[in-house]
Specification:
The protein has 116 residues and is of the alpha+beta class. Helix content is 25%, strand content 41%. It is built from 2 helices and 7 strands. The strands form 2 sheets. Strands 4-3-6-7 form a 4-stranded antiparallel beta sheet, with no helix packed on it. The radius of gyration is 26 Å and the shape is globular.
Length: 116
Amino acid sequence: MKKYFSLLLLLTITLIGNAQSDTSESEPTAKTQRAVEPKVKVFPNPATNVVNVLGLRNTEKADIIISDIYGNTVSSHQWAIRRNALNIPIATLRPGAYIIRVHSDEQQVRTKFYKQ
């Protein structure tokens, strides 16, 4: 009788374990729900006169905001993105670290660069 009870207990534990692993696999996780954004590349970095941003989505109207590391807006433009790239003139900026934010209906990107 003890053998049957042990076997029944082992079988029950196995079935419960399989049922729990099946439900956890069928539930979507945060990783599977997130869309994969293309990698945005900024070059040259550090830059002197122009900074290039590649990997953006084409759009007719994008807000481009350049901020210093303290969050103060130093430059703001509204441009069309063509050929998945932007060329942003930065000759008037002082040397230091900056953040570029690109906001459009298609995407929101935030990346940093350094001005020499």
